[in-house]
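Question: Send over one sample?
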Amino acid sequence: MISEKIAKALSEQINAEYYSAYLYQSMSACMERAALKGAANWLFIQAKEEMAHGINIYQYILDRGADPALSAIKAPPASFAGIKEIFEATVAHEAKVTGLLNALASLAMKENDHACYQFIMWYVNEQVEEESQASDILSRINMIGNDQGLLLSLDNELAARTYVNPFPNNSKLSGA
């Protein structure tokens, strides 16, 4: 059984993960409307990963004998000025999520909950990749500037991203 404090913090993280999914879906729609289908694909897959993160945390809370406390999810922005603004917002958002996860890891250590700490460290480590990918894309967008041909080349590259379930052993995510 996990403490009430840990269960509450994990439930808040579920909300943050679901908000991230909403945010990336909104960004994906914006890129669809801008005819940047590759960027739309990359962002939609990001949304699916965030949903998987939330579901995995939800299952962890249940597995530890507590009840997840789901709450309202704030609506994300509905429009963005373009791909550069979207990836600037993505970089900033991923940094914010890293801070939330670091706080959760610190709480788990403070509560002497080694299992929760181990669980959260997967997310902390995964954030390094999340931040790196978003920063790399933003750097490339900045290098491209106003070159529409290079933007289309980047868009084609982003179209190649495919979804891979990050938690294949979680029956809620694997369809088993």
Summary: Residues 114-144 form the longest helix (31 residues). The two ends are 25 Å apart (CA to CA).
